[in-house]
């Protein structure tokens, strides 16, 4: 899996972009030690399926000190500015850490239990570096815009909450299934049936059209950023491998039980009116106009979609053989 982005946010041109909202005092990084325990400032905004409510300051917004079963003692970030945690700890008194789901250039994603809503969620914890914090705030603005117009929540991942915790922007999402890339990887890169690819393609195109109608360009479409809604799968005979040994179960391949998918990762999303001169997209899915430096717009997303569909219905030989050589 390629985790390194070609585009670095906020990028040199990023500073020219207007901020979507003024910086508030609780957005500022908390003071560093000498205190052995850094007070936890929990700054959040709740989002529901019915749209975005007006911002308000509830009585329990600020949690100062460490309450019973609350946040762990302060500890420094690792050398790459990732948040250091232990499974079983709390991320603020509200969220209990269950597992680590993944890690990328932006930070890491943790599976947590929301004690208030009594549900499992995914929390994206952004590295405590200025450019990644800025990109995270842009992603939050994009997610809010998408949530206001996607009332059914069927196209893009839904934001539940966000807060600034010990200089890390934390974005709370609904818990979804594996990405299409992870599913292919665990399935030995075996292709999907053409009917399934057709259904996945329909949903991807509808989601991209929805974003384009809102004057948004995703710019980083790839199988890693398309998640299945459910983790359930079924096993079916793989007739291409019937002549091989069954010791590794090669007679069968896994297929998603449900074809429902959602787009994720809007940290690279750009508005139509913003600068389009820098390089975007992961190289496997990068449009020719981006490679040639001719400037790009909505069509770069469609090129990426075409690359994804070819990959899903092929044996993904590019991933198996070429990626190690290009890494």
TrEMBL record:
Enumerate the spans annotated as Protein kinase domain.
95-327
Alphabetical list of Gene3D superfamilies matching this protein: Phosphorylase Kinase, domain 1, Transferase(Phosphotransferase) domain 1
Its keywords, alphabetically, are:
ATP-binding, Kinase, Nucleotide-binding, Serine/threonine-protein kinase, Transferase
Q: Name one GO cellular component term.
A: nucleus
Which terms does the record give in the GO molecular function aspect? ATP binding; protein serine/threonine kinase activity
Disordered: region residues: 1-30
Looking at the keywords, is Nucleus present?
A: no
Q: Which domain of life is it from?
A: Eukaryota
SUPFAM superfamilies for the chain: Protein kinase-like (PK-like)
Put simply, this protein is called Protein kinase domain-containing protein
